[in-house]
Every structure is written in C-alpha cells, then in structure tokens.
Q: What sequence folds into this?
C-alpha cells in the first residue's frame, strides 16, 4: 500500500497528488501587496493579490517585461474611497508590450487597444471600492484582460 501523508509532512514547495477526487499542489497563498504610490511590479507579484489605495491618484503601476513573466496573472483591486483615484497601469515603456481585451459594462463594452506601451486606467469619477482588473501574460509582448469590474479604458 501507499504510505500515508499527514498534514505536518506537507511542505510549501512540493506537489502531492492523491488518487480520487482531491489534489493538492504545494505552496501557500502569497501575501497581499499594498500599493499606495508609483510602483513597478515584478515576477514576485505573479499570482499575488495587489490592492491599490487612493494614494495612487495620478501615479503609475508599471507592469514587468512580459517576456519574463509569460503565464503570470496580475490581479489589481482598488480599495480606496469611491471616486478617489485614477488608477494608471502601464506596460514597461522600454519595450513594445501592450494590454489587450475588453471590460463589459451594463450597457456597453469598453475595448482596450493592445497598442504597444499604451496605459490603461480605472476612471477616477466612477471608480468604486472593489473595482478590479486581472491581466494574464499571454505572450512575450502581450497582457490580456481576463477579468474586470469597473470602467477600465485606454488612457
């Protein structure tokens, strides 16, 4: 028979699989990164919840070079006061990375162009606590909007 594994034997770096319906892959949920001003994200932020406060107003969150983080997911959530900040997200300006996709609103769809080095932002006037955007790196030069809530558009 197989050796039994108890919870105290599971570390955070090894993947384990059990037969049947349940699978566990090692690792714990990373801590939340709180952003209050101009910030450059890195590969260490991949999969990490990122919260943004009103202190970010008119400042920029710069994404890492897409080719170094293919497959990564960045979820950015606004937690400041309603209508408290323009949240600006920028691909790294030294290359040709772009953000592409769309956010569906109640009555319309806002398309994000994918233009190289074009910023996107959560509009200040309509920004609400909990508005968020999830960006998935799909190629060496492209971030794709995989989920969003709120009015995010090209700046």
A:
């Amino acid at each position: 028979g197989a050796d039994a594994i108890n919870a105290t034997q599971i570390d955070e770096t090894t993947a384990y699989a059990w037969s049947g319906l349940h699978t566990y892959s090692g690792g714990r949920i990373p801590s939340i990164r709180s952003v209050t001003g101009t910030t450059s994200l890195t590969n260490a932020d991949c999969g990490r919840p990122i919260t943004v406060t009103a202190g970010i107003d008119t400042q920029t969150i710069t994404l890492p070079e897409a080719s170094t983080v293919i497959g990564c997911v960045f979820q950015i959530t606004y937690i400041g006061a309603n209508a408290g900040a323009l949240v600006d997200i920028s691909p790294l300006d030294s290359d040709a990375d772009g953000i592409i996709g769309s956010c569906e609103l109640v009555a319309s769809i806002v398309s994000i162009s994918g233009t190289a080095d074009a910023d996107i932002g959560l509009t200040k006037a309509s920004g609400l606590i909990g508005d968020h955007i999830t960006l998935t790196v799909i190629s060496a030069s492209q971030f794709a909007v995989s989920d969003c809530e709120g009015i995010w558009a090209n700046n």
Notes: DSSP finds no helices and 14 strands in the chain.
